[in-house]
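Amino acid chain:
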Amino acid sequence: MSDTPAPNLHPLAPEHLPGFLPDAAGHDPIMVHMILFVAVMIFLLVTAFLHLHSLPEKLAHKVGATQLQIVGILGLIALFTHNNLYWVAALLLAVVQIPDYETPLLRIADALDRQKSPEPAPQPQPQSEPKEEEA
């Protein structure tokens, strides 16, 4: 707002008007400030929401790849459906370490396969006869 008084100011109006009131040109400073404030707050809230939403996936990076994929899928489903149950499930799955059952079972299966069909014994290689030196 300009400091120069308007020439056709009402006689009952005070000499100094607060700066947040719109001037005669229609410029509303408080509306401009509120628009900027709301835009910044929306940006900060969306950033905080997305950072919080990626928390289970960040925690799951410490565990196995299969568990990381499941947590990532649950996080995406929770993000797109706005269903918090999937996010809680992803968070719990990321925090709890699932024991590795696959490796011992595969080793047992390999051992049973070796017992069932043992590998043939290596065949002795024929030794070459030493060459006689001609004199």
In short: Residues 29-98 form one domain. The chain has a mean pLDDT of 81. DSSP finds five helices and no strands in the chain.
